């Protein structure tokens, strides 16, 4: 019996399930969050994927729902941004609640809705859902949320990034005002703080991992290489005897497919997973990767927080991510469950400033691998330059390029650029858009469930839900 978990006031049936699943002791986020949730408090938690946060909310929720008399309605709603996360959370509820009489269901996009509608007709106590499909079924009259007692918003920062804020607002508007709300986020930005202020009532805080922290069990290395040499370098690395199971990240879906085909042509068992794949294809690829039938899974950032596969020996950044936090999430797929792992980053000359931004963000210099035949001395020299800054940089510290990986020609002569009409100079003599232009900035969410949608990203609007949670009445 797990005596460590018993100190958190969890009931015997849950402890028995944990013992059967091989859990020995709670993680820091579980130690903090479980007692708070059992007390019925709203919770704002900052925790990375891989810290055990799913158990941190699912275990106390199972206990609270088991203690209360059920009404044959959905009493717990968990919203999560990706299909993979939804399936993993649903599986966790089933694992921990195996000795309880509670029923659960999961609804997500990318698959036919018939089986999900049938599951809803069985009146589950717990519903795990992605926002888009949930709204669809709500509009068709298949889902009623007026009896929800506990709401969980998992990976809240990721949902904001993927443009789900308006969907979440509509869903929360259908929930009872008196409820318990738990918000989990890997980062605590101004937008997340504003979201919490609108949704949570006097929340308690739990924070265990700084957003830029990287596990000490992960050995971080960088290989400087020309963009054209990345393909051969990747094949060379993957043929090494030390690579047991590798997760390779690319920046785009098209490149993920191309890299996967190139590896397959060289006799390396590989598959790709990204948002354009059907849910069935994504499930099959993950299952084959988990069972060891394929050695390499090539992925985009949609699965950086959605993969929970043990035994990944290497994470390889074929393309460095523009978002520095994505680097942390990517390499966090290795060195899980107490194991050690290796994170390799391929860095071309035009990606040096991205690399330097990552090093500043994490507070650690990556170890340079010098003994490989595709080494780029120009990229390495650029990285070693004082200040590490090229003359012109693109968004997020990346060198500007023409869209094909090649840097654009630099403006010669050192002449001052003419300020475009409608812009205003800043104090440093540079340029910044007018307020009207800033308000007009748009971006398209290219990853996630359903079609890409356009969302405002600058300035970030303060979400106003109108139905901030209140402590649920004691029943």
What's the short version?
34% of the residues lie in helices and 16% in strands. It is α/β, with parallel strands linked by helices and 475 residues long. A hairpin with a 5-residue loop joins strand 15 and strand 16.
User: Can you tell me the CATH architecture of the largest domain?
Assistant: 3-Layer(aba) Sandwich
Please bin the fraction of helical residues. Answer: 25-40%
CATH topology of the largest domain: Rossmann fold
Measured distance between first and last alpha carbons: 31 Å
**Whole-number mean pLDDT:** 81
Strand order of the largest sheet: 3-4-2-5-6-1-7
What's the CATH C level of the largest domain?
Alpha Beta
Number of strands: 18
Number of self-contained structural domains: 2
How large is the count of helical segments? 17
Q: Please outline the major beta sheet.
A: 7 strands, parallel
Which class best fits the helix and strand makeup?
alpha/beta
Question: What would you say this structure looks like, in words?
Answer:
By secondary structure, the protein is of the alpha/beta class. The chain has two domains: 3-207, 3-Layer(aba) Sandwich (Rossmann fold), CATH 3.40.50; 218-390, 3-Layer(aba) Sandwich (Rossmann fold), CATH 3.40.50.300. The chain is built from 17 helices and 18 strands. Helix 3 runs parallel beside helix 4 (53-67). It is globular, with a radius of gyration of 24 Å.
